[in-house]
Specification:
There is one protein chain. With 234 residues, this protein is α/β, with parallel strands linked by helices. The radius of gyration is 17 Å and the shape is globular. Helix content is 45%, strand content 15%. Helix 3 links the parallel strand 4 and strand 5.
Length: 234
């Protein structure tokens, strides 16, 4: 059955792979993007999730064109890496505002329709960094760790209405964001990954799609690592 799916930050990288996976399964897929030209084949809605009014307008457009959101994948996120003593207040707050508070906004808005329908799937995209930490990423790690507590609280709050809330925590993924690293940096990262390679975006997408499927109807409040073993024990 075709569902109404929203993937925030679905215009590239992991988000685009997730959007494609749902579209290939026959779902109606909307994506949000902040800048540039969005990919074709989806209902593309320009939206900065740090702006509550833009979030509201995006949902209204999606609801008009493909119905209330039944599956939400909160993927949009930013990084502003810096060592702690060099990290400005704005470096910290801007990352938390997008990655954590922005996720709060899109989940809260989607939950209205899900509560009325008494069903829904919410998947938040966190990071292995949120579980094990990383030098120079205190802001990013804090925002991604926050998603775990947020998801587990909502899993308890919304579970009686047949709404599941889960987290996928990717490791290092072969995207534009990681391709800017030097060969030496990439080799250093891969050296710490038991499987000895980067993930492909499609591997993250497969786990997200599983959590949104009927096969995962009894999974909620879970954190699924897709990290090649990098974060074991965290």
């Amino acid at each position: 059955m075709s569902r109404s799916v929203l993937v925030t930050g679905g215009n590239r990288g992991i988000g685009l792979a997730i959007a494609r996976a749902f579209a290939e399964a026959g779902d109606k897929v909307a994506i949000t993007y902040r800048s540039g030209e969005p990919p074709t084949g989806f209902l593309a809605v320009k939206c900065d999730i740090t702006d509550p009014e833009q979030v509201e307008q995006a949902y209204k457009e999606i609801e008009e064109k493909q119905g209330a959101v039944e599956v939400l994948v909160a993927n949009a996120g930013v990084t502003r890496d810096q060592l702690l003593l060099r990290m400005s207040e704005e470096d910290f707050t801007s990352v938390v505002e997008t990655n954590l508070t922005g996720t709060f906004r899109v989940v809260k808005r989607a939950s209205k329709g899900m509560l009325r329908a008494r069903k829904g799937r919410v998947v938040l995209i966190s990071s292995v960094v949120g579980l094990m930490g990383s030098p120079g990423q205190a802001n990013y790690a804090a925002s991604k760790a926050g998603l775990v507590g947020f998801a587990r609280s909502l899993a308890r709050e919304l579970g009686s209405r047949n709404i599941t809330v889960n987290v996928v925590a990717p490791g290092f993924v072969d995207t534009d964001m990681t391709r800017v690293l030097t060969d030496e940096q990439r080799a250093g990262i891969v050296g710490n990954v038991p499987l000895g390679r980067y993930a492909q975006p499609e591997e993250i997408a497969a786990s997200v799609r599983f959590l949104a499927s009927e096969d995962a109807a009894y999974i909620t409040g879970a954190v699924i690592p897709v990290d090649g073993g990098l974060g074991m024990g965290h």
